[in-house]
Amino acid sequence: MSDILHYTLTDFVTSYGVRIPALRVYYQVFGKALGTAPVVVVNHAFTGNSQVTGENGWWKEAIGEGKLIDTLKYTVVAFNIPGNGFGAREEDMIPNYEHWAGIDIARIFNQGLTEHLGLKEVFALVGCSLGGGIAWEMAALAPTLFKELIIVAADWKATDWIIGNCLLQEQILKNSTHPLHDARLHAMLCYRTPQSLKLKFERTTNIPLQLYNVETWLLHHGDKLHKRFSLSAYKLMNQLVKTIDISKERGSFAEAVAPITAHITIVSTDSDLYFVPQENRDTVTELREMGKPVDYYEIHSVHGHDAFLIEHKQLEQYLKKVFVR
Ligand SMILES: CC(=O)SCCNC(=O)CCNC(=O)[C@H](O)C(C)(C)COP(=O)(O)OP(=O)(O)OC[C@H]1O[C@@H](n2cnc3c(N)ncnc32)[C@H](O)[C@@H]1OP(=O)(O)O
């Protein structure tokens, strides 16, 4: 496992105008030493973290020696969203999630890359789910920094559907006696599909527990998250998902992306009920009309949003054009 490194950002002002005197930013570096190879930045999803590879790495199938993002060829940098708690101290948690928006995290990550790590260019920026929204925001803020922009299972905006689900999550987080556990049950249903659950459980039951297996599975994921994640982190991530919007204060999506020089790759899943593929199909149409270089792929899967963490072979097939040279 690579060490969890950190630096302190001083006097950071969020887009809601709140000043944070000192903010520790935690990150990890994998593969080739910085300065010796092209840099790939990987943004994690809602409950993910900077541990992208290694035994417990959330994307170990794609990142590592000889893998799609080959750590023998690339330097991989992964930041933690501040306040996610990974490798952090209690005082690094962010209690006032209402003061934050997705764009704030993008500003912090870009500052980390250019000012803290001193990078002048980044070969590829990859973001999955919430991390993909943050990647859009990073590219809009630093339109010439990234050569390749790769958006997986994500969108440049929170749709009305996402905002509605985030409200439900927020209500559960505020009102439930087991907030994290219960919010996770609802979230897991957003990340799957009816067909995925049918295929997995076929209405089977756990006889001693007198529960359906789909129920024990959901409860297991609720318990697991409750044990490994914090309530303040979850509230913050929910707020970040809800506030992703690169068109905000820039007029339109077209105006936000016009200066971006990166080659763009977008990967959706045909059954994703959370970041629905039609939104990305429309985005790709608009980008192509603008003459932007963009490749679009759809993972074929019954598993919905979670397919990006399950259908590794398809994802590798679509992304190897960027990484295997
Ligand atoms: C906006 C955003 O950023 S959203 C992105 C957030 N995404 C996530 O957080 C991903 C959530 N999904 C998961 O965590 C999934 O488990 C995945 C995608 C990582 C893996 O999916 P799958 O391969 O289908 O595994 P599955 O969901 O069955 O999980 C396996 C676990 O469930 C347990 N399990 C499986 N069936 C049952 C059951 N009937 N009862 C109880 N537990 C069960 C397994 O024992 C295993 O437990 P462990 O992880 O503690 O070892």
Automatic annotation (TrEMBL):
Active-site residues from the entry: S129, D272, H305
Domain AB hydrolase-1, residue spans: 38-158
Keywords, in A-Z order: Transferase
InterPro entries the record matches: AB_hydrolase_1, AB_hydrolase_fold, HAT_MetX-like
One of the GO biological process terms: homoserine metabolic process
Keyword Transferase appears in the UniProt entry: yes
Single Gene Ontology MF annotation: homoserine O-acetyltransferase activity
Protein name, UniProt field: Homoserine acetyltransferase
Species annotation: Capnocytophaga endodontalis
